[in-house]
Amino acid sequence: MEPTKKLSNDDLRKLDKTVVWHAFSQMSEYDGLIIDSASGCWLTDIDGNRYLDGTSALWCNLFGHQVPEIDSAIRNQLSHVAHVTNLGMSHPATIQLAERLADLAPGELKHVFFSGDGASAVEVAMKLAFQFWRQCDPPAPQRTKFIALGDAYHGDTIGTVSVSGVSRFQSLFSPLLFEVVRGPCPDSFRLPVGMDPTQACQWYLSEYRKLLEQHADETVAVIVEPMIQGAAGFVTQPRGFLRGLAELCREFGLLWIADEIAVGMGRTGRFFAIEHEGIHNDPSLVPDFICLGKGLTGGYLAMSATLCSTRIWNVFLGSHAELKTFFHGHTYGGNPLAAAAGNAVMDLFQSQYSMEKLLPKIEYFQRCLEPLKGLAIVGDVRQLGMMAAVDFVKDRATKEPFGWNERISARICKRLLEKGIWLRPLGNVIPILPPLSISGDDLELLTRSLFESVLEVQEELIRS
To answer: Looking only at Cα atoms, what is the longest distance across the chain?
Structure first.
């Protein structure tokens, strides 16, 4: 094996297209950026071009790049130990992070299982829920199904793909997947015909009540992305839906899993997205599991966490001979470097980025997005905290979407790249998730550039 050598930019570009297999990318057409460095909210590629990072490195760089406090925490941890196994060992940084998450979590979510990525955290919750029903008193082994939302996305493992509902990501793998009971996608933009948001919320809940009446006795858990379904196109749920679904779960005696991989860690203006519906203040409605990831380490290192209730924890306690152990784990679960980064993130939330301090920025973000609503091909601009998305349509009256192959949002993102702005399309939607640290000037630049790029593509469509 040759020692690491300096590669030319042309070599890097060639190898990046032929050796590196990029996620969710058609490699025969691939032509992505190669980033050499980053600082704050800005990326610099190998040619020296700078780009404003409007996606927070795919929704995870909470406070941007080269954050001094996180950098320092990782360097300090490196001077002690980089990794210890989580099997029969632990580390002070890992223990401290678990305690801090448990202290922040509502209700009895006092136990933390660490994994390496969001899909793994959800898979842990699903397996724990499944095993719970086989070990509780009395056991309920007939519970083998999960109830999930239409167009849900929970990850790319076989288990999480099964409970996901984005057809283009899962249809090919259908022979490998297990059966799931799926309800409608609770969409506050494309409402059922003739309904306002309040009526739609009640209709969605009535549909889930029907499913529970039919399947509750065979259900392991209900799994939901709270408030916003990310990969579905940043679909926002009607207000009241999440709380109503939690109430249904309790009425029918079901476990429920809150997948907060994308919406947790302060991204929506609350530390946990379930707080928007007051669920954290009602112990009877608090989920049995909350899954966290992405922003947990500020986007620095791979780490996720599954928080579970004491009710779940207790069912796994017993002698070794009883085989109640959760036989599941990952090599890097609870890694000290990642935990050190996570603790630095928690410190930053306590000091510079409390939810109260973020409110003025969230309000300014909303004002910056307002001009987009007047553009003809913009059907909806939706925002919750520092998460926003623009939904493009052929017809604003009917909300008819553009065809998948028209790639309108991709064309807009290409224009943005020419202006030094990095956003990544999601079907007919462009998500906007800047780091929480973004300045007012950069936020204005981001949204103004987006407005200009949409207008340019819109005029192209009119001329054609």
So the answer is: 74
Q: What is the CATH number of domain 72-351?
A: 3.40.640.10
Distances (CA, A) of 107 to 133, 280, 310, 311: 21, 7, 9, 11
pLDDT digits (tens, 9 = 90+) for 220-231: 999 999 999 999
Over residues 174-186, the pLDDT tens digits come to: 889 999 999 999 9
Residue 7, number of CB atoms within 10 A of its CB: 12
Q: In Å, what is the CA distance from 379 to each residue of 135, 239, 306, 411?
A: 49, 20, 36, 17
Give the span between the Cα atoms of 299 and 266, in whole angstroms: 13
pTM over 0.85: yes
Pairwise CA distance, residues 381 & 375, whole Å? 11
User: Cβ contacts of residue 291 below 8 Å, gap of 6+?
Assistant: 118, 121, 122, 124, 125, 257, 258, 259, 260, 261, 264, 304, 305, 306, 307
- Tell me the C-alpha distance between 453 and 464, whole Å: 17
Domain 9-62+358-463 adopts which CATH fold? Aspartate Aminotransferase, domain 1 (3.90.1150)
